[in-house]
Structure formats: structure tokens, C-alpha cells
Write a structure and sequence with these properties.
By secondary structure, the protein is an alpha+beta fold. It is built from six helices and 17 strands. It is about 15% helix and about 30% strand. The strands form four sheets. The chain has an eight-stranded antiparallel barrel with strand order 4-5-6-7-8-10-11-12. It has a four-stranded mixed sheet with strand order 14-17-15-16. A two-stranded antiparallel sheet has the order 1-2. The radius of gyration is 31 Å and the shape is elongated.
């Protein structure tokens, strides 16, 4: 297997990011179908089905330092005067476009101080000069998340730090004051947001994710004003044609939305990872799967969510057998691939009205109806499963218990209530779609019925296992 085969493997992984795979592979040693593999829980990647937030607001305060100008804020060597410091504040509305790029509409306001002394507290003596500049700015910034752009995600280590780069342009308004022994005067004024007063800024920042809602961020920005009057003083023989300054700030970013993660922190490959050790010598073979590929489906065992895929079955990026019509029969065994039908009829429609193939006997349980964190809302990707449940239960003489469960986050009492709400919502969906109510019983078991008992506490497990614990399933009474 040469290097070009490794490149092909990466290319095949990319389409997996176009779907949201929510459930985990479960092999029950029986006829393979979507309810045991989890592939029925795949939905198109759309704005409605996304699993992340992409809006946030940011605000903070900083210290602007005028350095590239006739009058400066910091003094070095034998420069006369003392260090003087201004202040600034910013507010922005941020939109993530991809996991590595976003846009921010930002408003800045502040005051720089420069010269020999602080004009707010000191007075000029002799030939000393002090200046201050009050400024307002509106800019559009591009935000590049270098950590997401360059990192290799393994989904096993915490990801809380991110390096960002910023650059953008905007419009500037300011009033500059100069104070000498003769007094203080207004030396320059650019009124609000003149098109001729465009400016540019760029820099870098470091973000730390405190929790799913709040990030703390530090930035160092270089502001290119494009004006020689910004510092309040113009020296005719100066080689500086524009006054520029640094702005160091510290602030918070509040992520908006109902989902668990923000796009800038979201795993770009949706838990589908291909670790390829590319050797320096391109003529050598590349070892794609160190852990092996037991079912020979092209997905390494470490990341394969269905380790016993039948030979010849097409799989998605997580190694789960595909079922295009979502009828419970994987495509390999489906005689009618594009038309849903029951398991007992090999996935083809029946004309006898004997029902669909949701549950083949009284001991079979339905898997894969999962929920977002702290939510009892039925996901769009679960509706095909529930619609099949309607057909099966209506054609069955038995009655069924709808069991709700949670992961181990939050208190036991809260989880019991949440699991009951989940079970009630599923029951309500089935009843609204034609199932007789007295055939169903909704039961909440909270965190006492974990699919993965080792996930107590939740921090011991990757998120896909905790998600699998947040489920509702059926049980014959």
C-alpha cells in the first residue's frame, strides 16, 4: 500500500463529515440491520440538524500603547518623560463560518496617552509635551483558528486552548489633544466614521475554554491608523507618516445557542478519525491501521463503531453498514435498496399489511434513539425509526414499555425527571402518529440504566459513549 493509497483513505473520510452520526455500533449476533448498527440514526448535515453553535458575543478591556508615532507611551533608554497608559474596551458579534474561520463585527472605544507626561494628572514644564487621543472604531475582522486548522484530533485528550489570528479593516473617529506649557488644545478631529478615515488592524490571541458557554481570551493587536495626526502632534521633519499603536486586551467570549459545543471548538471530523503515519521516504509502505481492521471494511478497529460488519457491506466513515432507505435492513441484504420494507421481506414492501420489521420478537429492544445533552426533544434523525415503530406496534397484538435514560451528569433526581420527559415525548410522538395509547407505557429510569456503565462519572468516557447513554428504547411487556 503506497502513499497515494493513504491519500485516498483521507479522501474517503471527508464525505463522512457531511452527515451527523449520533449512535454507536451495537452487535447483537443477529440479522444485521440499522437498529443494531446505528446507521439509521444518520441525517443530512443541514442547518437544522447541526450539533454545534456558531454565534457568540465578546467583550473586554485593554491598554493601548502608542509606539510608532512622534509621541509615544513607553519610554526606553534615555528617552525623557515617564510611561503613560491609556485604556480601551471592545464589544463584538462573532459568527463562525467553519471550524477554523469566522467573522467578527467589532466596536472599540478608548483613549491613548502619549508624550512626556499624563495630561490627566500632570502639567507641562519647559518644553515638555503630553497628548491624549479619544477614539472610536468599527471594524470587520477575520478570525483564523490556527489550533483547529493545524491540529490532529484524537478525541481522547482535552482541548481547551486555541491560538487565533485576527486581521481586518474598519473606519475610525478620533479627537486628539496636545498639552504644553501654554495649555491644552484640540489638534485634530476626525468625525464619526468618515470613509476617508479607514484603518486596519491585525494580531494574535489565545483562548481558553472555561466551559461550554464561556471562553476567556487575551489579544495583542497592532492598529494601523493611516493618519499622522492621531498622536496629537505632527513634526514636519519626521520620517513617520502615520501614527500606529499596540492594543493589549483581556476579555470574555459568550457562546450562544442550545448545543453542547461551538463550531470553533467542534471536532471537524465528527468523531471519524484516520491516523496515518506518513513516512519520510515516499517509496515506503504506509501503515494505515496499527490496531488492525478485523472486519476488513477499511476503518481501523480503534475507530470502527461496528467491528463485525458483514463482508461486502458498504460502510460510512465510522465503519457502520449503510442502509440508504432506513428500513432496518442494511444495503448488503436489502433486495429493495431504495424502497423501505420489513426485515422478513428482505427490505422490500409487502402487500399483505403484516407490518414492518422493527422488532422481530418479544425480547428484541430498539436501540439508537438518542438525545442531546439536557434535552428531551426528538431529533430529526430519529423520525425514521419512530415511524417504523408506529407500523410495527399497530400490527402487533402486544404492548410495549418505552424506557428513557440519561447519562450521569446532573443529580439523580434531575435525571429521573429528564428521562421520564424523554419517554413521554416518544410516547406522544407514537400516539400522535396512530398508535393506541393503552399499548404503551412510558418509564423513566434516569441514570440507573446506563448502556455503558463504565461512564460513571461521565468524564471517564468519550462523548459518544455518554451520548449513547442518553437514549430511549422499547421493551416488550
Amino acid at each position: 500500500m503506497k502513499l497515494n493509497l493513504a491519500i485516498l483513505a483521507l479522501a474517503l473520510a471527508i464525505p463522512a463529515t457531511a452527515s451527523a452520526q449520533d449512535s454507536t455500533a451495537v452487535s447483537m449476533g443477529e440479522y444485521p440491520n440499522t437498529y443494531s448498527s446505528g446507521s439509521a440514526n444518520v441525517s443530512p448535515f443541514t442547518q437544522d440538524s447541526k450539533r454545534f453553535n456558531d454565534w457568540s458575543i465578546s467583550f473586554g478591556a485593554g491598554v493601548p500603547l502608542m509606539q510608532d508615532a512622534e509621541l509615544q507611551s513607553l519610554k526606553f533608554g534615555d528617552m525623557p518623560g515617564k510611561n503613560v497608559f491609556g485604556y480601551s474596551a471592545y464589544f463584538s458579534i462573532d459568527k463562525a463560518i467553519t471550524h477554523a474561520f469566522g467573522l467578527s463585527l467589532q466596536y472599540d472605544r478608548g483613549e491613548t496617552r502619549q508624550g512626556w507626561f499624563n495630561t490627566k494628572t500632570d502639567n507641562a514644564t519647559g518644553f515638555e509635551m503630553g497628548a491624549r487621543t479619544q477614539f472610536d472604531a468599527i471594524s470587520l475582522l477575520g478570525d483564523i483558528n490556527f489550533s483547529n486548522l493545524l491540529r490532529r484530533v484524537d478525541n481522547h485528550s482535552p482541548f481547551r486552548w486555541a491560538l487565533h489570528g485576527y486581521a481586518g479593516i474598519g473606519t475610525l473617529a478620533y479627537r486628539a489633544y496636545l498639552e504644553t506649557a501654554a495649555g491644552q488644545s484640540l489638534t485634530a478631529e476626525i468625525k464619526p466614521f468618515n470613509v476617508g478615515a479607514m484603518f486596519a488592524q491585525g494580531g494574535a490571541g489565545l483562548k481558553y475554554k472555561i466551559n461550554r458557554r464561556v471562553d476567556v481570551q487575551g489579544r495583542l493587536m497592532y492598529v494601523f491608523t493611516g493618519r499622522d495626526t492621531f498622536d496629537g502632534f505632527v513634526y514636519n521633519n519626521s520620517s513617520l507618516n502615520t501614527d500606529n499603536f499596540w492594543n493589549a486586551s483581556l476579555g470574555l467570549s459568550l457562546k450562544l445557542g442550545k448545543h453542547e459545543s461551538h463550531l470553533m471548538w467542534h471536532d471537524p471530523l465528527q468523531e471519524v478519525y484516520y491516523k496515518l503515519d506518513v513516512l519520510a521516504d515516499k517509496n515506503q509502505d504506509v501503515e494505515v491501521c496499527k490496531s488492525g481492521d478485523a472486519d476488513n471494511d477499511g476503518v481501523c478497529d480503534d475507530w470502527d463503531r461496528q467491528l463485525d460488519t458483514p463482508a461486502g457491506a458498504r460502510v460510512d466513515g465510522a465503519g457502520v453498514a449503510l442502509d440508504i432507505d432506513l428500513d432496518g435492513v442494511i444495503d448488503l441484504y436489502d433486495k429493495c435498496v431504495t424502497v423501505p420494507g420489513p426485515v422478513e421481506n428482505n427490505g422490500c414492501p409487502t402487500t399483505t399489511g403484516t407490518g414492518s420489521g422493527l422488532i422481530s420478537d418479544d425480547t428484541r429492544t430498539l436501540e439508537g434513539i438518542e438525545f442531546d445533552l439536557n434535552s428531551d426533544q426528538i431529533l430529526p434523525s430519529n423520525t425514521p425509526i419512530l415511524n417504523n415503530a408506529v407500523n410495527y406496534i399497530n400490527s402487533s397484538a402486544g404492548s410495549y414499555r418505552i424506557i428513557g435514560a440519561t447519562d450521569t451528569r446532573a443529580s439523580e433526581a434531575y435525571n429521573m425527571n429528564l428521562s421520564q420527559r424523554r419517554a413521554n415525548n416518544v410516547k406522544g410522538y407514537l400516539v400522535n402518529n396512530g398508535v393506541t395509547s393503552n399499548k404503551l407505557e412510558a418509564v423513566g429510569k434516569g441514570e440507573s440504566d446506563l448502556k455503558y456503565p463504565e461512564c460513571d462519572p461521565a468524564e471517564k468516557c468519550p462523548e459518544w459513549k455518554n451520548r449513547a447513554n442518553r437514549r430511549v428504547y422499547f421493551e416488550a411487556k
